[in-house]
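Prompt: For my understanding, could you write out one protein's sequence and backbone structure tokens?
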Amino acid sequence: MWLSNSSVGRKFVMALSGAFLVLFVTFHCLMNAVAICWPAAYNSVCEFLGANWYALAASAVLALFIIVHIIYAVMLTVQNRKARGNVRYAISKTPKSVEWSSKNMFVLGIVILAFLVVHLIQFWAKMQLVEILGDHGTVPPAAGTLFIQMAFSEVWTPIVYIIGFIALWFHFNHGFWSMFQSIGWDNNIWIPRLKKVACVWASLVVLCFIAQAIVFTVRANENYYIKNEALREQYKDMVWPMMEKDFGPDMAQLGMQIKMSPYSQVSMGLRQMEQQQAQQIEQLSTPEGKDYVKNNPQMQTQLENMTKQHKSLENVVKFFDYLEQADNKPELEIPGQPGQPQ
């Protein structure tokens, strides 16, 4: 098949997958801008792009293009090394301004891939992946601003991101115009124009990404995403879906109460509910309680349901504990997160 066996076919696939990734990166930049201008709307977008079929289909297509781009990049790199030694992307009369990036596109791609892995761990794994697995833990998957808070509270995060963005600029800038060259637009009129378009486009996207990383870092260190009252009200409304799975449709009244009540009342009410349920489970765990459950088979099922519901309530109370720690404590730890104390 010429797409995989011929040099022209491989370059065409690289150009096609690269064009798709350029559009995605641009879209992702615009989506992040929403998190700066209107954080609550960003959470709504995160909820819309959860584990729904259309979001999963889009994620699968994106993953496919990334994998194809990586595979064909390796194939072209091996091919070019065999043909021309260390020259990575064969182009004629390489301008000095892009000579370094043209010779190091594969290395830049590795840096971007490493950055992508970090980004997926910090966001996608805690949002869409946990919804797919059906176990979201303490923080609701739709609370995108809280995952920004968690990620950019770390000192190393903005450093890693900015390094990744710089590598992205070089890769984006050179890859944009060279993909047109790969499909035949190799002339003295269009290539200079495309280089200017590539430089402007790549610069705008990367500068926006860097500005977003800086804003996210400043706000995270101010605990903005935890203290903001509008966001707190939004987080409160996310609590009900977290509980609905374990409590079932019979808890519709509680769900309405959560949505209609002020944040502080919801927090207090859920804490009281969790304490009462803990006391009931504790009573049924005593020798007398165990005998009662043993002599009443229906109570065994009720106890199992109650224990499951209590675990859900515990996660919700931990979630509110996390939010409310920001009112009194400057240093926060996310309860129930991997590698942190429970």
User: Anything to note?
Assistant: The two ends are 55 Å apart (CA to CA). Residues 53-84 form the longest helix (32 residues).
